[in-house]
Design goal:
The structure is a single chain. The longest helix is centred in the N-terminal third of the chain and has 30 residues. 70% of the residues lie in helices and 0% in strands. It is an all-alpha fold. The two termini are 29 Å apart. The chain has one domain. Helix 1 runs antiparallel to helix 3. The chain is globular, with a radius of gyration of 20 Å. It contains 15 helices and no strands.
């Protein structure tokens, strides 16, 4: 069976990338929800590996942009605004208005404006306001601003030098954060510089056609890669403790990527697995934008109080909240698509991987 298939009449759309995007979004949501479930310590640490989906998302964003058909930089940024920022602004505004009535989040107008004007990425108190997951928008905006530089470097350097330079920059930046003692501050730890290695890997993988070669390794090698990633993260934690976690992104990404390839292989034999990942991908960005607010509302209704870090619920409640989040995300996704297609003027052509709803973050 071919590694690549045609999806939604798009022969250039690679199914594994779409599956990986959907899987990453689902695991991110699951990771966020399971933090409120009392789990055994080892299992609780294991769920954090699901958070590796955010690294996969950054990799896939770079991979997808490598096939951009934008005719100019103005056109490129116009498409990014339509596909990423407009849905974000809509979700944020709805959350802000609803929050005035339900009081889930303590932030008000100043925090809201920091999102709209995009300066929250420089101000720690606001970077995670109206939902801890919104830090990611700051990172992806920075990534778009760095994209011209990445393309220029990729065009001038051999692929090995390009990827190696990106890894060196990320490692040095992480070391600097540790030296300054700011590794726990989101505005520093989630800078796009921290993830330069992922952006370079995504760009190189697209240009060098690494994905089909990686998939061709087969399940045994994929399982060995997953084991190597797990061993690396455990060893790093043993040797360096909490400070070592700052360098754990590399191993967690390896675990997630190997796991995604294993699940994709399983999906060739159990189509429901593949269909589920592709289905989540079809509204994944909307799910990401809305899932924490839906969960917070559910927890508030369940406990009668504003959720906090000490709120705990049973696993069945996570399943109910997941179902509610999926329903809300599907409705929000339809609203976003309707608004985008209803706007006058030419409609931007989508990239190979995303859709007009903008699932490339």
């Amino acid at each position: 069976m071919s590694v690549y298939k045609s999806v939604a009449a798009k022969p250039d759309k690679q199914v594994f990338i779409s599956f990986g995007r959907g899987l990453s979004m689902f695991t991110i949501v699951l990771c966020h929800y399971l933090q409120f479930v009392p789990l055994p310590p080892l299992l609780a640490k294991g769920t954090l590996l699901a958070g590796g989906g955010v690294y996969a998302f950054l990799f896939i964003s770079s991979y997808g942009l490598s096939f951009s058909r934008a005719s100019s930089w103005a056109d490129f940024y116009r498409k990014r605004f339509r596909s990423v920022l407009l849905p974000y602004y809509l979700a944020l505004t709805l959350i802000f208005v609803l929050n005035l009535a339900v009081g889930i989040y303590p932030e008000g107008w100043p925090a809201y404006l920091s999102h709209v004007l995009l300066y929250k990425m420089f101000y720690e108190p606001y970077v995670q306001s109206f939902g801890a997951h919104f830090w990611f928008i700051s990172t992806i905006v920075q990534f778009y601003l760095l994209w011209p530089l990445l393309l220029a470097l990729a065009a001038r350097l051999p692929v090995g030098w390009f990827v190696g330079l990106a890894f060196a920059v990320s490692l040095l930046y992480t070391g600097l954060l540790l030296r300054l003692g700011v590794q726990q501050q989101r505005v520093w730890a989630s800078s796009a510089v921290q993830y330069a290695w992922l952006f370079a890997l995504g760009l190189a993988a697209a240009r060098q056609r690494w994905v089909p070669r990686l998939l061709a390794l087969g399940p045994v090698r994929h399982a060995l890669l997953l084991a190597a990633g797990l061993a690396g993260t455990l060893l790093l934690n043993q040797l360096a403790g909490a400070r070592g976690n700052s360098f754990n992104d590399y191993f967690i990404f390896l675990v997630f990527a190997a796991g995604a390839m294993l699940l994709y292989g399983l999906g060739q034999r159990v189509p429901a697995v593949l269909r589920f990942g592709l289905w989540v991908e079809s509204f994944g960005y909307s799910l990401y934008l809305t899932h924490l607010f839906v969960f917070a509302l559910y927890l508030a209704a369940l406990t009668g109080a504003r959720p906090n870090a000490y709120t705990r619920v049973g696993l069945p409640h996570v399943l109910v909240a997941l179902a509610l989040s999926f329903g809300v995300a599907l409705l929000f996704d339809k609203l976003v698509k309707w608004l985008l297609t209803a706007q006058p003027g030419p409609v931007a052509l989508p990239l190979p991987a995303p859709t007009p709803a903008g699932r490339e973050v």
